[in-house]
Amino acid sequence: MASSLRCFLRTGKNAVSALQRREFHRTLPVAVQVTVRDALNQAMDEELERDERVFLLGEEVAQYDGAYKVSRGLWKKYGDKRIIDTPITEMGFAGIAVGAAMAGLRPICEFMTFNFSMQAIDQVINSAAKTYYMSAGQQSVPIVFRGPNGASAGVAAQHSQCFAAWYGHCPGLKVVSPWSAEDAKGLLKSAIRDDNPVVFLENELMYGVPFEMSEESQSKDFTIPIGKAKVERQGNHITLVTHSRYVSHCLDAAAVLAKEGIECEVINLRTIRPLDVESIETSVMKTNHLVTVEGGWPQYGVGAEICARIMEGPAFNYLDAPVTRVTGVDIPMPYAKILEDNSVPQIKDVIFSVKKTLNV
Amino acid sequence: LKVIIRTLMVLLNHPDFILMPLYDGARVVVSRSFADFTPQASFDIKKCDVHRLEEGPPLKAELTREQGLQYYRIMQTVRRMELKADQLYKQKIIRGFCHLYDGQEACAAGIEAAINPSDHLITAYRAHGYTYTRGVSVKEILAELTGRKGGVAKGKGGSMHMYAPRFYGGNGIVGAQVPLGAGIALACQYQGNDQVCVTLYGDGAANQGQLFESFNMAALWKLPCIFICENNQYGMGTSMERASASTDYYKRGDFVPGIRVDGMDVLCVREATKFAADHCRSGKGPIIMELQTYRYHGHSMSDPGVSYRTREEIQEVRSKSDPISMLKERMLSNNMASIEEFKEIDVAIRKEVEDAAQFATSDPEPPLEELCNHIFHNNPPLEVRGTNPWVTLKSVS
Questions:
Q1: Which chain A positions have a beta carbon within 8 Å of B180's beta carbon?
Q2: Does the distance separating the beta carbons of A96 and B182 come in below 8 Å?
Q3: Which residue of B has its CA nearest to A88?
Q4: ipTM
Q5: pLDDT tens digit string along B119-170?
Q6: Fewer CB near the terminus (10 Å): N or C of chain B?
C-alpha cells in the first residue's frame, strides 16, 4: 500500500492503474477525480463514437476546442464532418440543427451561453418542441441544445440569465440541469440518446470543479435517467430542493447546520422538466419543511412551480410551515463584485432561510 | 345492314367515341383513336434571368402526352381542393387559418415533376398544394382542415402543420422553415445520399434575417439546398415594392447563384427546378429560384384580397396567365389531347374532391383520449396535468 502511494505521488497520472495492479487479492471500486468539463467531453466523445449520426455544431466548438474547452480534442479526433464551427448566427444554425434532426441525424447544438439561445428560441420551441405533437407522432426531433446557463463571474446582465424556468415551461421539451461530473456525463449521454428535444443547462462556474466519479460511471454505457431527482444527502428536519451549482451551496449549508443539530435532506433535481415531484413529496412527508434554492429570478420560477405542485399534492398536509424559496435577486445582474455577490443566493442565505422556516 | 349496325355498335362502345352536336341539332358520329394525338411536343419557355450563372435553364421543354395529362390532373386537383376548402371555410366547417394556393399550382406541380420522391421538401403555411404533390390524399388534407381524426395529422396540426415522408410541412412561423430546409440539406450531404432539399418561402419572408443566415451557411458548406422564393407579389397585404428595398429576390442571395422563373408556366418551373437540382447534386452548393406567380385568393380566408390590389388585376392574371388554362391550351393546340379528355379528368377530380369533402365533414373528431399523446417519441407513458389539479391525463408516444 505504501509503495503504491509513493508511486501515485510520483507519477500522478498512472495512479489508478498502479492501485489496481497492487490490489490483486480483491477489486476495489476505483474512483477518479473528473471535472465537469471533462465529464461532458467524455460523454460527447463516447456518443460520437457510438452513433455516427451524432454530430456537434456551434460557435468555436471545433478548431478553438470550445469557448469553454468543453469540446476539446473532439475536432482533432472526428474532423470537420462531425464537429462543425458555425458563424455567429444562432437563429440560422439552431434551425439548421433542428432540420438535420428532422431528416435523421442526431445533432448536439451548442449555444455559447443560453443567453444567446434567445435569438434562436423560436427554433427551439416552435420548430423542435412542438413538432412531434403537431404531426401526431410522424416527425420526431432528436436534438440536444446544450451550453452554460445562469450566472457566471463578472459577465453582467446580458450574459447571466437563468433559462430553467423559460424552457421548463414548454411541453415537448425535456430540460436537464446537471450538478456533478457524474450528473453531467450520465445525463448528457441520456440526452443524446433521447429521441426528443432536450435542453441541457450546464453551468460555467462548475466546469472546472472536480468530482469523484465511480467506476460504474466510467463505463461507456453509463447513463442517468432523465426525469429522476437524486437525494444527495439524507436528513430528517428539512428538505432542500435545488439544481445545478446550488446543490454545492445546499450541501455546504447542510454541513454547517449539522453542527447545530439541524439535519437537512438535500435533493438534486437533475431534471427541471419533467419535474420529479414524487421525490420531493416523499421527502417533505418525512421532514415537514421545504426550502427551494435556485439561481434564477423568483417570479414564475422553478421554486414557484415546486411550491404550486406541493400545494396540489399529498405533501401539503405534512407541511409545518409554508415553503420558502431562495432565489436570485429580482434584478438584472450587476457587474461590480460586491453587487454581483449579493445578487445570487449565498450559503448564508440558505442557512438563514432554513432557520426561519424551522422557526429556530 | 347488319355490318353497318355492328360497326355502329363497335364505334359506340369505343372509349374515344364522342357524339358531337352540330349547330342545327343534327348529330354526327365521330371517332378518334389514340393514334391521332401527338405523343410529344417541344414548347418554347420563357428565358430565365440569371444571377452569378453562366447559363440558365433551357429555352425549350419537352412534354409528352402522359406528362401533360398528369400535370393537368395534379394542378386541377389542387385547384378544386382549394376551392372546396374555401367553400367549407365559409360554411364554418374549417376554422382558424386557411391560406389557399389557387393560382400558384404550376409551382407545386412543376417542382414535383423535376425532383425525385426521395428528395425532400419544406415550405411555409400556404402548404396544401405541396402536401398533395408530396403524396398526401385530398381526403386526408381536407379532413385535417376540418379537424377530424382521419386527417393527415389526426386533427392535431391543422392547415399549417401537415407532414408526410420527405415533406416537413407546413410551417407557421414566417421564415423559420428556411434554416430547417438548410439543415435537411445538411443531413443529405452528411449521409452522402445525393438527395436535395427544396426549401420554399414567400416574397414576404424574403427579408427575414434567418434566410440570410441560411444562405451564408449553405454557401459556406455547399449544402444541396434549392431555396425557392414563391413571389406572389404580396406579403399578406403589403406589396413587394412596399416591403423590399430590392425586389430582385433571385439576386438577394448575393453570393448564391439565382434564377428568376415564370411561375405560372409548369414547364418553365419544371425545367428550372431540374437545372437547380443538377446544380446542387453536382456539389456546387445552394441555388436560389424566384418563381413569379400569383394567388387568386387573399392572404388567408379572413382577407378578401381586394383592399390592396384591384379586382381588375386579379381578373387579368386569371384570363391571361392561369397555369391550368395555359397547359390545357398548349396541349389542345398541339393536338396532344381532346377537350373531352380534359372534361373527363375534371369530372373525375370533382368527384374525388366531393368524396373527400364528404369524408372530411362526416369523419368524427379526434377522441379526447388522444389529447395528450405525441408529446415525446419512444418514451414511457407520462402524466400530464389537466386544467385543474384533480385532472391527470395520460400521454403515450
A1: 95-96, 98-99, 102, 123, 127
A2: yes
A3: B213
A4: 0.90
A5: 999 999 999 999 999 999 999 999 999 999 999 999 999 999 999 999 999 9
A6: N
